[in-house]
Inverse folding.
């Protein structure tokens, strides 16, 4: 059974600096997870020992968009019942992601290209861009 990855690329604006904001959805770019999803983030149905960003949970200061997504999911689970397909939550900053190699054929290449454009246009430092992710099936 396939699984889905959800999440957002978040930035921390310089004007305020205290609040993270969602720049765009990861789900729109990552159509289907690939090896990178499991090998780096640990988001897969199989154990990926050594995945550097696995099982981190969510940052305490997630964006309002992530908060709303999680609240919506909680409401759905209360109404329909919780599923057993939760594969966890995690995150990584761009600074951290630049330390790992991405296969040229990975679906994540498109996401990283979008992040690069965002960073170039708004001049965000690597530490002020992060990817917040969760997966389920």
């Amino acid at each position: 059974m396939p699984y889905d990855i959800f999440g957002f690329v978040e930035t921390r604006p310089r004007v305020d600096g205290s609040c993270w904001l969602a720049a765009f959805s990861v789900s729109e770019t990552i159509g289907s997870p690939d090896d990178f999803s499991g090998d780096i983030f640990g988001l897969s149905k199989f154990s990926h020992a050594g995945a550097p960003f696995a099982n981190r949970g969510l940052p305490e200061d997630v964006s309002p968009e992530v908060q709303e997504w999680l609240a919506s999911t909680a409401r759905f689970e209360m109404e329909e019942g919780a599923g057993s397909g939760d594969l966890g939550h995690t995150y990584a900053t761009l600074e951290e992601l630049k330390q790992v190699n991405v296969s040229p054929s990975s679906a994540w290449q498109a996401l990283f290209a979008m992040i690069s454009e965002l960073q170039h246009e708004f001049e965000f430092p690597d530490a002020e861009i992060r990817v917040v992710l969760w997966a389920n099936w």
Remarks:
- The mean pLDDT is 87.
- The two ends are 7 Å apart (CA to CA).
- Residues 64-80 form the longest helix (17 residues).
